[in-house]
Amino acid sequence: MKWKSEYATGIHNLDNQHRTILEIITRFERMGEGRAHWDQVHPLVQSTRRFMEYHFDVEESLMRLIPYSELRTHRDEHRNALARIADIERRVGRESARDRVAPAMKTLLLGHITGSDRRFAQCALDLFRRRPFGAGNDGAHRLRGPE
Ligand SMILES: [Fe+2]
Ligand SMILES: [Fe+2]
Q1: How many CB atoms neighbour CB 62 within 10 A?
Q2: Centroid of ligand 1 to alpha carbon of 113 (angstroms)
Q3: pTM for the whole thing?
Q4: What is the CATH number of the domain that holds 33?
Q5: Structural domain tally of the chain?
Q6: How confident is the model at residue 80 (pLDDT cuts 50, 70, 90)?
C-alpha cells in the first residue's frame, strides 16, 4: 500500500507511526495473496495488536496534553479497534477467517486514520497555531514536523 496525502495528519511522529501501520496492512495483504499458514499470520496479528496499543497510547497522551474535547470518543474507538484485533487474533486459526484478516485490518485502521485521527490532528495543530510556544525553547516544531 502506498502512502497518500489523504492519510497525512501533519503531525510528524503520528504520520511516521501511521506509515508503519500501512506497512503492516501491506504485509497482511501479501500474506492473503500467498495463502499464508495461520502460524505466520498469527504472530503478525499479535505484534500488530502490541504496536497499536503503543500507538494509541501515544495519541491519547497527546490528547490529554492538549487537552482534546473528543478524547473520550476517540479513546472508545481505540478500545473498539483493539477489541476487534484481539478478536481477529482468536479466530485467525480458522481457514475461513484468515482470508478476511487483510480487508478487516485495512478497513479498521485506515478508516480511523483518515477520520478521527485527522480530525484530532487538525484540532491540535490549530491550537498550536493560536498558542505557539515561546521562541527558542519550543517543542512545536517536533509536533508539527517539516512544513
Ligand atoms: Fe492513529
Ligand atoms: Fe487514533
Answers
A1: 19
A2: 5
A3: 0.86
A4: 1.20.120.50
A5: 1
A6: very high
